[in-house]
Amino acid sequence: MVTFMSRPFRVPTRVVMAPGCIGRLPEVIAGYAPERVLMVTDPGIEETGWPERIWKALAEREIETITFDDVEPNPRASTVDRLAGWGREEGISLVLGIGGGSVLDAAKAAAMLIPNGGSTVQYEGRNRYETEPLPFIAVPTTCGTGSEVTWVSVLTDEERQAKISVKGETMYPAWALVDCEVLRTLPGHLVAWTGADALTHAVEAFTCRLANPISDALASTAVSLLFRYLRRAAADVAGDAEAREAVMRASTLAGLAFGNADVAAVHCLSETLGGRWDVPHGLANAVLLAPVTRFNLPASARKLAHLESVLPPGSRSGADGVLQAIEELVRDLGVPAFRELGISPEDYPWIAERAVQNGSNPSNVREMGVGEYLEVLGSL
Ligand SMILES: [Fe+2]
Predict the structure, then answer these.
(1) Which domains are present in the chain?
(2) Is the distance from CB of 137 to CB of 173 less than 8 angstroms?
(3) If you measure from the C-alpha of residue 197 to the centroid of ligand 1, how many angstroms do you get, rounded to a whole number?
(4) How far is the CA of 165 from the centre of ligand 1 (A)?
(5) What distance in angstroms lies between residue 201's CA and the mean position of ligand 1's atoms?
(6) What is the rounded radius of gyration, in angstroms, for the C-alpha atoms of the chain?
(7) Which residues, 6 or more positions from 194, have their beta carbon under 8 angstroms from its beta carbon?
(8) Residue 2 CB-density burial (10 A; 0-12 exposed, 13-18 middle, 19+ buried)
(9) How many angstroms separate the alpha carbon of residue 271 from the centre of ligand 1?
């Protein structure tokens, strides 16, 4: 178990976590006295009526809001370019993101790009911009992203068929309003997939080489909540208030954990699949989490065994018990097998090479080269 940390743990975001807290948005936004607000969302969220309600509430305070609802899953860097260009033309001074990880990542990058100009891909890496981003307020509407409490935006560079990360010390959302009530309308399979993303964040944060005592505490609580409540939430998120609140809480705790530790090999693979085949991020992680955790076991068993205390009653002991609990949860969520994603084995060498190049690859607890990734892919 890691008992020290040399890097500071950072969460500059003001996090509110309560049912109904989305109602505080107008008050929070008004505190910035913005000239104009850019609300970023997607068509699915538009249908819930939340953006319209927020638009009206802001209008009552004489705050003008324009809405962009054209963010696709695995958001493209070119979409952020378009979004930021429009925001700049319209004189935007605050960005609000209401949606899943795709929406929040696109909105977060736009808040940086609007005052900095140019195109998103120029800013790949960390702290590559000069001008402070616009204030960005995040309202997650899935139980998986964690983007509401991290400094990173993960985007698809279509030309390179790859995911890129754009991050910076001042790209953290200014506020995160984490309201489980917005999960009520999320379809069951998306609760399952995004919840599996949260579980992946927690397991990878807990076992990776950058794990630290604070991320461990957050990650183990998130794993505990997801083991207990994710099945219930996926089965009836609208009717089960306890499960709804628990998985939403777990998602943000897992985001805080990986945001201050890292993700690892599961994400190196899932981001590769998302960048080229557009596989939804949560689904890719759900499919890969158990096999990669099994592969990592020779290097992770001692650490993973510390999660034994959060296992459901009757589980096997030690790291094997944790792995078994992950496998059973993924199976119960009805996650399809990797083969069903339609990716040809001929592409495995390309996938393995790209996974090795991912910035989080060195964080994986077990050394992963092309050969190791091919071994994982071959086992699927
Ligand atoms: Fe993720």
Answers:
(1) 21-178 (3.40.50.1970), 187-378 (1.20.1090.10)
(2) yes
(3) 5
(4) 12
(5) 6
(6) 20
(7) 100, 101, 142, 143, 144, 145, 186, 251, 282
(8) middle
(9) 8
- Copy the structure tokens of residue 133: 């981003």
Distance 204 CA to ligand 1 centre (A): 10
209 vs 192: CA distance, rounded Å? 27
Does the pTM surpass 0.85? The reply is yes
CB atoms near residue 80 (< 10 Å): 29
Per-residue pLDDT of the chain (380 residues; tens, 9 = 90+): 555 678 899 999 999 999 999 999 999 999 999 999 999 998 888 888 889 999 999 999 999 999 999 999 899 999 999 999 999 999 999 999 999 999 999 999 999 999 999 999 999 999 999 999 999 999 999 999 999 999 999 999 999 988 999 999 999 999 999 999 999 999 999 999 999 999 999 999 999 999 999 999 999 999 999 999 999 999 999 999 999 999 999 999 999 999 999 999 999 999 999 989 989 999 999 999 999 999 999 999 999 999 999 998 888 999 999 999 999 999 999 999 899 999 999 999 999 999 999 999 999 999 999 999 999 999 99
